[in-house]
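Journal club prep — side note

Before the paper discussion, L.F. wants everyone to see what a predicted structure for a comparable chain looks like in token form. Sequence:
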Amino acid sequence: IDDFTKVDYSLNSLPAVFQPFIDLNLKGTVYPAGNYTGPPYVAAPFTIPDQSDSMLYLAFSEYFFQTSSFAYYSAGAFNITIAEETCNYFNISSEIFSSIIPEVAKYSVTPYPVMLKLMATEIPIISLEQDSFTAEIQGSMEVFAVLPDSATQSLFTMNIAANTSIALNIFDQKLMGSLCLNRLQLSLAHSNVGFFEVSLLENILSYILQTEVIPSANGK
């Protein structure tokens, strides 16, 4: 699929051939690239609704998304460093955090660029629901100040727990998804600037991320 994952789409059984249709039962298991250790999930059987007004029907099970989440987590794809240049583009600096967290202002009087390290600490849990699916995410975010000599100084690390819902719709022959943040919880894991309450930062991030639109993909 990409540098992180491979997919096994071999047939689970012989194709079932009927007069009006053919059923192809594919395994649909996603693995970390170079590692074919079986994922810790069991595929449950499911059926496609009996319809006949379209030429082709595709169905993706919860197992497919669960193994995808496991594969990307195992390959380290959810460990992301947001570099100084990207933070500068979005106007994120120690000065921004100082306006929210007074302890940062006391620790660093001079504004510095920042760098963020995001990490998933557990395998994201994906659950399918009617017309949408939800994702439970556990992770951490470490904030670094980038000093004039390009050295970095860790300011603080926060634990992150988030629950999101993604609803899919087809509009104008494009697959569209809307992402809604249902819950966001932050807790202070470690701080080099002293203890501080994260509730204000939590509220601001929740407001910013409340509703987002996933980029559309061509398809019908």
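L.F.'s comment for the group: The first strand starts at residue 5 and ends at 8. Keep this in mind when we get to the figures.
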